[in-house]
Amino acid sequence: MRAILFDLDGVLYQGDRIIDGAVETLQWCERNGVPHLFVTNTSSKPRRALVERLSGLGLSVSAEQIFAPPVAAYDYLAESEAEPVALFVREATREDFAGLSLLDETAESGAQSVVIGDIGEAWSFATLNRAFRLLMEEPQPVLVALGMSRYARGKDGLVLDVAPFIKALEYAADCKAIVMGKPADAFFDAAVRRLQTSRAETVMVGDDIRSDVGGAQAAGLTGVLVKTGKFRDKDLKGSVRPDAVLDSVADLPRWWDNQLG
After folding, report:
1. How many domains does the structure of the chain reveal?
2. How would residue 41 be classed by pLDDT, with cut points 50, 70 and 90?
3. What is the model's pTM?
4. Residue 55 lies inside a defined structural domain of this protein
């Protein structure tokens, strides 16, 4: 083991509270020269806002250390020239797509790609139907999913994330989304390339048994589950078997040393 991918929400912080031991674990990484990145399926905030949020919580993280679906999607869309782009993201996240040709927010035709992120309570029948109509045009636009998490933990409990809406569009428009986020193999591969390590040398630490742990293991990484964030006891009874289960990220240094010991 040489490098670590950390999920953010539910692993390093939850709501407005830093998880006990998170700061110390990141300091341990720095002291020991352990390469690490922060990989998140968050598409509700631009990368700039994530850096500001982490800084406000006492975590010193640069923008280059954060690898999120909008970042990966921008690279893909620019390289494939899949423009104009129909964006279904929150207003603040649109800044991560600056420089691309964006379709008018009311248009129901003319897109080369349809990008779906977490827009929370902004979802409505009309919004979902507009995305469907765009995807039914010929030639069919590319459907891009900013992550495939089924749900997240909000301030008042569990809330739907991106995946349920992507699945509805895939079924209705008879297409398959390109996933820019966990658990997609290509997303983990891109993160590992940024670390300049191999999949076998990289550990993913997350609170989502499917997207974090299952996705990482399927991509050839070690998957470590923490019992914080969205973790539930039933996660340990499913088909995905974590390589390790820790009470929190605070226990990571001791586990790491034991594995190398």
Report:
1. 2
2. confident
3. 0.80
4. no
